[in-house]
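Standup notes
- DV: blocked on the single-chain target, sequence here:
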Amino acid sequence: MCGIAGVWNVDDSYNILHDILLGLQHRGQESTGIVIEGFKFLKMQGLVSQVLTKENYINGRSGIGHVRYSTFGENSEIQPLMGLTSKGKFAIAHNGNIPDAKIRMKSLVEKGAVFNTTIDSEVFLHYISLAPYSDPKLSIQWSLSRIPGAYSIVILTDSMLIAARDSYGFRPLFYGKFKGGFVVSSEDSALTALGAKEITEIVPGEMVIFSDMGLDKVKFATTKMRFCAFEYIYFSRPDSNFYYGNVHKARFKMGGILYRESQMTGDIVIPILDSGFSGALGFSLASKIPIELGLMRNRYLGRSFIMPENREEIIKRKLIPIPQVVKNKEVIVIDDSIVRGTTMKQIVKMLRESGAKKVKVGIHSSPVIGPCPYGIDTSRKNELIANQKEIEEIIKEINADELYYLSIDGLKEAIGGDKLCLGCLNLNYPI
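- DV (later): unblocked, structure below
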């Protein structure tokens, strides 16, 4: 996924980037990077609090930042990327994946391009360099129009900061006013926490230019909104708001509709914290089955979905059952999704070992049956349990008593519209 941030014309941009990226830490936990005006940079593996320390402070009034969750390229490579071209120097931070990046990279190399990383984001730098314009702004506009998606991107030059979304709007991006300048973030919640005003969602197919002239907007492609449904299902913070509204409210409705469709019965509802909590609240209210804290979460181990290695060990350390809550109970576990099945299998096992009489599983999204080519690490088809197995087989695999998913129609109803990318759920990919 990744989280991207930008600051334009505000004192102490280093600490502002720190605060925005901290608010986006859930989107990437492998590495942190920033580039400050004058192209001074700091890039290291680790969390925001470990990298952007007082000792590493860089002075400046503008900059961009990135927290990485690798889906393309080596995970040791860290954004933002920088490049010197005939149009000037550029730094870019990118959230999303270019599905045909390997073909584009091969074509560029055949024309004499030299890549410094294996990250698909570097394609943007090469296109800017090759654009048939001398003007940096027109070169960026040309390069963005050449790539259908998937990207939300911030680009820093000597004289401007540009924030843009592809025409499908797969990945989110917002800007707001702050202390006489502007701030940019993948999610509006990070800007709200900062105290930014007039927070605005960038329109798909639009680039927003921040410079000494103020703010300007250029439409470089026709909007064909297909916002990623998984942002609502799992990735984003509950206090974030997108095209269709608040994330918590959408997940709450997912849980309520899941009960309406499944009519599951049990003694208690247990949420898988944190992304399953809102759905569990909705399920509990609709079913009138009390919600309980049956699994405690260790908040210092990150998110298991986006951790690249040792998932089973992480799950065991991250989720701790409370036997006094689950013993001799018919438990309904509510989670946002099942991707590989690893997490849920371990959870069911732990609950049974803690004395649960029955373990039923409710998923407040539809089965994940396809990989995501746009920036989510949902793996190959043969690693996706819902692609390889029928419901009864999944129940057997995870050792649950029952399993129900939310229907795609139910998901659309909960989110509030259908201008969504549902490719991983129905194999209908917009690009």
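- Follow-up: The radius of gyration is 22 Å.
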